[in-house]
Amino acid sequence: MTHPTILRLPEWFGRPEQILLPLPAAEYLVQEVHRDWWHVVAKPTGQTVYTGLGPIELLAWQNENNYRVLRPTRFPE
What we know:
By secondary structure, this protein is an all-beta fold. It contains no helices and seven strands. β3 and β4 form a beta hairpin. The strands form two sheets. A four-stranded antiparallel sheet has the order 2-1-6-7, with no helix packed on it. It has a three-stranded antiparallel sheet with strand order 3-4-5, with no helix packed on it. The protein has strands at 5-12, 15-21, 28-34, 37-42, 48-53, 57-63, 66-70. It has one domain.
């Protein structure tokens, strides 16, 4: 069984936003292209999954009770 990756986005008006992604976390390229501006691409297809404000986190499925949080590297100061 394949388990989704969760893309966690910044809160908007106090409400958290999450996007379920169908591929494992390792199949996404996550880049901060400018300060607080993020770009997420599915590696196999080149499809842009998200481009917008951050910070963002990828949550990678570990087991039925746990996700591992992957915090992408920030844009250099």
